[in-house]
Amino acid sequence: MKKKNCTQLNAEDQEQQYQIIFEAASDGIIISDVETRSVVDANPAALAMHGYTREEFIGLHLTLYIHPDSQSLFTQAYSAARQKGSPLDISAIHLKKNGSAFYVEARRTAILFQSRPCVLSIVRDVSQRVQAEHLLHQREELHRREQATLLEISQTLASSLELEPGLILDQLRVLVEYTHAELFVLDGTDMVALAVRGPRRLEERVSFRIPLKSPETLLKLFNAHRPDRIADVWSTLDPSAQFLRSILAEQADFLLEGVQAWMWVPVAIKNRVIGSVGVAHLEKDYFTAHHADLALIVANQAAIAFTNAELYENAQTLAALQERQRLAQNLHDAVNQSLFSAGLIADVLPRLWERDQNEARKSLKDLRRLTRAAQAEMRALMAELRPSAIIDTELGDLLHLLGNALSGRVNVPVTVTVAKEISLPPETQMVFYRICQEALNNVAKHAQASQVHLDLKQAGTTIELHIRDNGQGFEPEQTLAEHGRYGLQMMRERAEAVGAKLTVTSQPGRGTELILQWAKDPPKETK
Fold first, then answer.
1. CB atoms near residue 415 (< 10 Å)
2. How far is CA 242 from the centre of its chain?
């Protein structure tokens, strides 16, 4: 028997060491033939990873253990690794014997094995990490969608000046699925349902009223302004479930029919409780802490909507009161003054006629002027009481009405010139009317004029209203506050609101002219 030389012994020892490492490696090691695409050798870790015995795995074609989406990477990895002369790291999807897929990270190297080109793949199962990343991504995406939805809900509810109870429940359902839900408002010691969403039998119910028998019941219901989740509304052991059934009383069977889980969400702003939202689901223990947080955010937005609606209602009430006070003041300042003066003339007219008929005729003219002024003022006030009349009436007729009222009130001739067929959008006509009204009021109070001209005309697409008087005028460059003419600034703001322009020209002793200009949108050119 021939003795082996040292070189042979070293090679055998080295091969044995490689085999030990190959067998003991925790990562899967697979050697595959490039031409046949079949497994040449694999270590125990690779066999366990894929669920095969050694006899089953050796010779297995890559289509049976590599997912179709990753099979092209095998050839690409060999070519790329061969050109680079270094390993290539890739992510791929492999298949177990039972057909289930799992994610791997593989380092593939082009090698010669048993004198044929092969790919050495060191494979690590990273399915848990990938699944964790996917779950994290899903949670981040869900969080992003929830934040976007909450922002949209906030904008929707905050932009509505009038309360829409059903909208609040609809917005809540975008984030928290429910079987049915009710929005309640606190009315004294009762909770009254404003809106219901769910089965038709509930939505067709006219109203729900839940009496709260004591302050302690109210405190317990609103749970320190935190949502209260009830896993099983029919539980005989859960105090919250017992409390729910007790406050619903005879309505419990109706409201809780077919549902298991319930959640109370308080609607409050600062320390004031406004109402609550009751949310139900047919699955037991359905509502999570995250559901409660989302519902509370929507409820807080609902509280803001309640407050906005309350403030808007108060503002409307105040505006109506201020408008009535303004009309009453106008009646006192204009109509009442004209009628009082007319009454004085009527009282002395018979005696004056007997003494001096020429003077009596002058008084008759004054009487006619005052009664016409009172009539014009009354027509203007009637239009104020019915704003649609200002929109429905021709602007020229409105200018004549304002001119007659001023003429009768201060005995100043007002000339009104109106071009035919002038049409303005409703909001623009309202601004023209208001600015002319304010301008004539300024004439009556400050101008000391003996002549006023109103001229409404159209040049091309531009409509202009000129208001001129020959009164004492003022210095426009001086501050408005010095002359008490804050009204001019208000008129400019009115004009700008509809895209119009107001120009004021005046000089001391030379009267004042206001020019209000508004241009129609030019017609679009057709291609």
1. 12
2. 39
Spell out the alpha helix ranges (H) of 411-453: 426-442
Q: Which residue has the tokens 């009317």?
A: 433
Q: In whole angstroms, give the CA distance from residue 465 to residue 374.
A: 25
Percent of the chain with pLDDT over 90: 29
- Secondary structure element (H or E) that encloses residue 133, with its range: helix 127-158
Angle at 518 between CA 513 and CA 521, to 5 degrees: 165
AA identity, residue 113 = F
Q: How far apart are CA 349 and CA 363, in angstroms?
A: 7
Closest CA to 246 of 229, 233, 258: 233
Amino acid at 224: A
- Residue 232: φ, ψ to 5°: -140, 110
* Nearest-angstrom CA–CA distance, 58 and 341: 120
Contact 185, 332 (CB under 8 A): no
Three-state SS annotation for 335-402: HHHHHHHHHHHHHHHHHHHHHCHHHHHHHHHHHHHHHHHHHHHHHHHHHHHCCHHHHHCCHHHHHHHH
Q: Name the CA radius of gyration of the chain, rounded.
A: 44
- Fill in the amino acid letter for 249: A
Q: Is residue 485 predicted with pLDDT exceeding 70?
A: no
pLDDT in tens, 247-266: 888 788 888 888 999 999 88
445 vs 374, which has greater pLDDT? 445
* Beta pairing partners, 266: 276
At residue 205, what are phi and psi to the nearest 5 degrees?
-70, 130
- What pLDDT score was predicted for residue 51? 95
The answer to whether residues 246 and 239 touch, using CB atoms and an 8 Å cutoff, is no
Tokens of 428: 């623009």
How far does the chain reach from its first CA to its final CA, in angstroms? 103
Report for 251-260, 382-391, 463-472: range of highest mean pLDDT: 463-472
How far is residue 295's CA from residue 302's CA, in Å, rounded to a whole number? 10
pLDDT at residue number 479: 42
How does residue 481 score in pLDDT terms, banded at 50, 70 and 90? very low
Q: What band does 58 get if pLDDT is binned at 50, 70 and 90?
A: very high
Which residues is 181 bridged to in the sheet? 197, 279
- The span from the CA of 297 to the CA of 136, in Å, is 23
Measured in whole angstroms, the distance separating CA 61 from the mean position of its chain's CA atoms is 58
Q: Which of 20-29, 213-222, 355-364, 517-526 has the lowest mean pLDDT?
A: 517-526
